[in-house]
């Protein structure tokens, strides 16, 4: 399954990420996934700055499964990919892993929707966005439109 994840970025746990038991607090996992999302879309758009208003994507739902704690002496990598693209939404999959052992620490599934900040409403994901993701991922995405 790791061949599916073209994008990877290492995150540096900070001192205040850890709880008294020496584990990264579960709420911090979302920060790591956010770092992965931003880095992923920077790579997709080949830019150092993401203007989210221009890209027009917002998070609508996140599901996270926690498999194993992240400890103080561990390295952590966020892997990110797009699983599917619909008319107004896309499904993003992410994993937190220890790259030295390949142990899966957590997995997240995020639904992002097309969004127009001017009208404050959902809108279809742009073809430009679909093309950029397809180009980056190296595979075509056929829009899955529910009826």
Spell out the CATH superfamily: Hotdog Thioesterase
Strand count: 6
The portion of residues assigned to helices is 10-25%
The value of Rg in angstroms is 16 Å
Write the element-wise H/E pattern from the N-terminal end onward.
EHHEEEEEH
By CATH reckoning, the class would read: Alpha Beta
Uncertain residue segments:
none
Distance from N terminus to C terminus (CA atoms, Å) equals 30 Å
Tell me the overall shape: globular
Write structural notes for this entry:
Strands 1, 2, 3, 4, 5 and 6 form a six-stranded antiparallel beta sheet that branches. This protein has helices at 26-45, 52-55, 127-137, and strands at 7-11, 57-66, 76-85, 89-98, 103-116, 121-122. By secondary structure, it is an alpha+beta fold. β5 and β6 (121-122) form a beta hairpin. The chain has a single domain (2-137), classed as Hotdog Thioesterase (Thiol Ester Dehydrase, Chain A), CATH 3.10.129.10.
Structural topology:
Layout: E1 7-11, H1 26-45, H2 52-55, E2 57-66, E3 76-85, E4 89-98, E5 103-116, E6 121-122, H3 127-137
Antiparallel strand pairs: 1-3, 2-5, 3-4, 4-5, 5-6
In short:
It is built from 3 helices and 6 strands. Strands 1, 2, 3, 4, 5 and 6 form a 6-stranded antiparallel beta sheet that branches. Strand 5 and strand 6 form a beta hairpin.
Which labels suit this protein?
about 150 residues, alpha+beta, Thiol Ester Dehydrase, Chain A, 6 strands, about 25% helix, about 35% strand, globular
């Amino acid at each position: 399954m790791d061949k599916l994840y073209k994008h990877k970025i290492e995150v540096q746990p900070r001192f205040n990420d850890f709880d008294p038991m020496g584990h990264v607090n579960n709420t911090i996992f979302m920060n790591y996934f956010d770092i992965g999302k931003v880095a992923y879309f920077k790579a997709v758009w080949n830019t150092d700055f993401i203007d989210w208003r221009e890209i027009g994507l917002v998070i609508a739902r996140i599901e996270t499964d926690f498999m194993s704690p992240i400890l103080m002496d561990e390295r952590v990598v966020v892997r990110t990919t797009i699983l599917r693209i619909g008319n107004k939404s896309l499904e993003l999959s992410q994993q937190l892993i220890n790259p030295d052992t390949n142990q899966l620490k957590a997995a997240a599934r995020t639904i992002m929707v097309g969004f127009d900040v001017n009208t404050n409403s959902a809108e279809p994901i742009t073809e430009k966005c679909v093309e950029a993701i397809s180009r980056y991922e190296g595979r075509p995405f056929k829009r899955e439109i529910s009826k």
